[in-house]
Amino acid sequence: xxxxxxxxxxxxxxxxxxxxxxxxxxxxxxxxxxxxxxxxxxxxxxxxxxxxxxxxxxxxxxxxxxxxxxxxxxxxxxxxxxxxxxxxxxxxxxxxxxxxxxxxxxxxxxxxxxxxxxxxxxxxxxxxxxxxxxx
Length: 135
Description:
With 135 residues, the protein is α+β, with helices and mostly antiparallel strands. Helices cover 23% and strands 39% of the residues. It has 2 helices and 8 strands. The strands form 2 sheets. The chain has a 6-stranded antiparallel sheet with strand order 1-2-6-7-8-5. A two-stranded antiparallel sheet has the order 3-4. The two termini are 17 Å apart.
């Protein structure tokens, strides 16, 4: 699936969050997803919440897998680890750069670095494993 097909899939099957996320680029090893950060994503202290960053990483990795295997809505997260490294500032969108590390018949393993727009060092890192249902 290309970026246009992934964005259409999100709009159709995940309409509750699709307006906030957009797949902006497919790469040789993964993809890039942007999150339009709004007031609902913020926590006290003027920073983006951890659950928001987790959602971005999870969605980015899910889309990276679908970009290779096609529309498989029931691929699910089976393991996740997240490191929050820096405070992402309010008022800046987030970008997840996702890399597929292994794509097998039953499992996919990937990582994602999350960046706050305009800042060079990543604000978070996620590693996730997905179960791919039998076809």
